[in-house]
Amino acid sequence: LQIGSGSPKVNSLAIPKTVMNRVVLVTSPELVEVSSKMPKVPQRAAMVQELIEAYRITDRLRMIEARPAGGRELTEFHSKDYIGLLERAEAVEDNGDPDKELEDSGLCYDCPIFEDVYSYACWVAGATLTAANSLIGSTSSVAINWTGGWHHAKRCRSSGYCYVNDVVLGILRLQEKYKRILYVDLDLHHGDGVQEAFYYSDKVMTLSLHLRSPGFFPGSGDIYEVGERAGRGYSMNIPLKSGVTDDQYHNVFLRVVEIVRERFKADAIVCQCGADCLVGDPISHGSGEGFNLTLKGVARCLQQLMSWDIPMLVLGGGGYDLANTARCWTYLTAVLVGMNELPNEIPDHKFIDAYKPLFSLHILQHPTQPNRNNEESVSDTLQFLSANASDR
What we know:
- With 392 residues, this protein is α/β, with parallel strands linked by helices.
- It is 36% helix and 10% strand.
- It has an eight-stranded parallel β-sheet with strand order 2-1-3-8-7-4-5-6, with helices on both faces.
- Helix 9 links the parallel strand 4 and strand 5 (204-211).
- The protein is globular and about 55 Å long.
């Protein structure tokens, strides 16, 4: 498990044509409109959809209509009390005074109430369930919902910009057909809500690569969090330090997922592709810490999973530089349908001004954070994970 420079290049991977020819993108005007109201990422959903269409990637995939989830579907994971409160919260007028019931359920600060918040939650969760249903019905091999991926929400509370955990809902839906599901989280932040939901399960393996540093949200994701009871060995965490680069990240990812592939033998994959792992994301400005990844660095990981040729649900997540997030998810969509190279010049479209001054697809590769990861610490992490991963 030594970290070397000889890892396979992702461009050499043979992506099965059966995968590339059966990719669906879940979307609808209503989903894009309500998702664009999200205070932390205003207009992001619209920017992503518009850029995908501007590159005509939609010619190579099938778009299917999203539908909103009902309250009963939301309570397949969340408590009835929490969902009821979220529904009532739409009518709460913000007069500046704190509401204890809302605060106790996390509906404040980083998860503020906004116009159509309950409708937003229903549409985002419903889009992920729509994507999961397409996999269950064998009408797709890869199903994408870029408005999803909200991995922090807990059963009874919102957290970290996440009002509902559509990831958990999607996994639960996939369990109707697939016995063993691998969850892979590429977001800068640890996927704590998903790990917590399946911490005692041997049917879902959670794998999260994330920044771990004192005071950095959510504070979980240590390598020693390996699951409990039946789930022991089914939670895997790769805590990285600030400044990790494309090659380093992919080398770690490749070695760990090959261990998982051999031992867990997943029937389906759910991959959260939070774009806050990209170089220069604003989330790193306040903390002074972040990753130095580019679009191609993230794409190499996704292509590795595609090469397994099993059903895959692909979701969004974090990403607070809106233009860079649109760049990233557009590029990943292209990779998923076999368009490994897109013109670097952004096509003219509604949001073209957001890509000033270079109007380029690929972001500059100048590291914004010093790399605090060294070969010894990363190798120690990999050795621990290999020794503790379940082989049942």
